[in-house]
Amino acid sequence: MIRKAQPQDKGKVCDLVLMASSCLYSDVLQTDDFKKQKELLMKYYDMPMTKMTMDNVLVYIHDGEVAGCLVWYDSSDEKEMIKNMESVLTTDYKYVLEGLNNTIYLDSMAVDDKFQGLGISRKLLNYAIEHSDKDLSLLVETYKTDVEDYYKRVGFEVVKTVEAFDCELDVMIYKINAWTL
After folding, report:
1. How far is the C-alpha of 69 from the C-alpha of 47, rounded, in Å?
2. Which residue, 14, 19, 50, 25, is CA-closest to 165?
3. Overall average pLDDT of the 123-151 stretch
4. Domain 2-174 in CATH: superfamily?
5. Averaged pLDDT of the chain
6. What is the mean pLDDT of residues 56-79?
């Protein structure tokens, strides 16, 4: 079952997001201390208008447990979210805009190791596709060809390559209302 995240999901969701993005949060906080990274994510989870706010998280429940999550948000809100996120930092880190204009940005998706192979990521992606009225966008490190191939099989296409987060990233898009003649 897929549902919006709830307050009691916070710890598990933050663990999953860190599993997918720990290198980012070590840069943000300038520390590899997992506990401090999780504390920051938990703060974002509780704050309104951040990328990680509870309202932007979908969870997949399997056997009563949070088995996976997807963080997604409207890119038109991203500047305000970044401002709010930076307001609580103790470092001078500056977040960058990630989503393409006028899209729903798929920020982080992760599935708990013990639930791998059950099609949870595909179900989360299908949910996003079925419940979005805008195109979807995401970033994939260019060296992660297996991940990029997965998104291509789902229907995403590479539209450009950018430099961000000290690496080369492919910007991918899924056209929700693609009309063909």
Report:
1. 18
2. 25
3. 94
4. Gcn5-related N-acetyltransferase (GNAT) (3.40.630.30)
5. 92
6. 97
